[in-house]
Design goal:
Layout lengths: L1 E5 L2 E3 L5 E8 L8 E6 L6 E6 L6 E3 L7 E6 L4 E6 L8 E9 L1 E4 L3 E5 L2
Parallel strand pairs: 2-11
Antiparallel strand pairs: 1-3, 3-8, 4-5, 4-9, 5-6, 7-8, 9-10, 9-11
């Protein structure tokens, strides 16, 4: 199982970023996919989930209406579109899938600062 995130960076408050996670080594279309984040000094938290077919989504309350999770099962990729970014969105964002064990990508840094 391999998960490779990309798309992080430095953005001003109110800006946007689109994260991508390229998956390999498993049958991507068969699994729910998740985005987590970890802010400095805090525990890792679930930000968004999308089910295997892409028809059901969950969002952490603080990102509802600003973030959108999506997937392309033909490309084995899950995305996180982040709009109206705030400083408290800063952290390392991780792609995650549960296949017997928790599987994580290496993470991508998102910094929201003026």
């Amino acid at each position: 199982v391999q998960l490779v995130e990309s798309g992080g960076g430095l953005v001003q408050p109110g800006g946007s970023l689109r994260l991508s996670c390229a998956a390999s080594g498993f049958t991507f279309r068969g699994f729910d996919m998740n985005w987590y984040r970890q802010a400095p000094g805090k525990e890792r938290e679930l930000v968004a989930t999308i089910n295997s077919a892409g028809g059901s989504r969950y969002y952490k309350d603080s990102v509802k209406g600003r973030f959108t999770i999506s997937r392309d099962n033909a490309k084995n990729t899950v995305y996180l579109q982040m709009n109206s970014l705030r400083p408290d969105d800063t952290g390392v964002y991780y792609c995650h899938v549960r296949i017997i064990l928790n599987r994580w990508g290496q993470g991508t840094q998102v910094t929201v600062s003026s």
